[in-house]
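> call design_seq(struct)
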């Protein structure tokens, strides 16, 4: 199983032939939350310092940095700049990038809280959750290390419409890796472009980025979200199945299949439902599946 993205000099491009259609991944990740979720004790005025900071599952590191800046009333960009001196206890594979390890949870805010202390608390929490016996054993059982498991969990977090779908999404990831297929996840392209959208164009799939899972084999070089416990469980315990494609045709109806033609029919239904719901909504020019062949 190829788990790591090869160096740029050795990356293999997807063989597309003359195919006009490229099945892609429609992201069902939550839209980026513009403001941090803060709670305030008591009935003080608007200027009262919040007592805690909630980091939701699936936020990217940039969203976390913005939330900490706002919670601590710091100038924009302060938390990101603090990374150099935070001395976070990250795995070597992370190369200093905390993406995936800013664990989603509720963190207390004290008078002494700083960006460094909050980020350290998040990473410490992630290490406790991710380095337990079940996660480590599950990663080893699936021939990967914990950092690779976190990377898969981050994709699951971004792609799964519901917690019940997470195990199936995990299996699609593993099936594609085991077959030497590109993941072709729209969530990785959205990460590269710092956006969240259901629409992916053919031009999007041609971007030059190590996170372009249409053109680059294996996993992206880092996680793409900060996953929660459910996604992490799914990453090391994929459901049983032969699925290679999936698309959420409508809320509550995500369809998984190993048959490409069946998948294209599901995609057509997805686009039809989007047009009915919002005639002005764009339709992906890359048939969405949240993964493709």
């Amino acid at each position: 199983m190829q788990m790591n993205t090869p160096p740029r000099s050795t990356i293999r491009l997807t063989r597309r032939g003359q195919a006009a259609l490229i099945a892609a991944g429609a992201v069902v990740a939550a839209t980026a939350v513009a403001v941090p979720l803060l709670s305030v004790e008591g009935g003080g005025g608007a200027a009262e310092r919040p007592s805690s900071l909630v980091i939701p599952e699936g936020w990217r590191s940039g969203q976390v940095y913005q939330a900490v800046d706002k919670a601590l009333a710091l100038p924009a960009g302060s938390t990101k700049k603090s990374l150099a001196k935070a001395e976070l206890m990250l795995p070597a594979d992370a190369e200093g990038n905390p993406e995936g390890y800013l664990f989603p949870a509720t963190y207390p805010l004290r008078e002494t809280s700083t960006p460094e202390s909050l980020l350290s608390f998040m990473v410490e929490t992630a290490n406790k959750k991710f380095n337990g016996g079940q996660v480590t054993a599950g990663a080893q059982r699936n021939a990967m290390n914990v950092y690779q498991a976190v990377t898969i969990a981050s994709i699951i977090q971004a792609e799964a419409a519901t917690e019940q779908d997470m195990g199936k999404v995990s299996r699609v990831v593993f099936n594609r890796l085991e077959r030497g297929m590109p993941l072709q996840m729209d969530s990785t392209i959205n990460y590269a472009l710092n956006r969240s959208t259901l629409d992916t164009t053919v031009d999007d799939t041609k971007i030059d980025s190590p996170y372009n899972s249409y053109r680059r084999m294996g996993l992206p070089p880092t996680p793409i979200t900060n996953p929660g416990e459910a996604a992490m469980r799914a990453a090391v315990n994929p459901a049983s199945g032969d699925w290679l494609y999936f698309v959420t045709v409508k809320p509550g109806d995500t369809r998984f299949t190993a048959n490409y033609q069946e998948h294209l029919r599901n995609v057509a239904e997805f686009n039809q439902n989007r047009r009915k719901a919002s005639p002005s909504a764009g339709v992906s020019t890359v048939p969405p599946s949240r993964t493709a062949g």
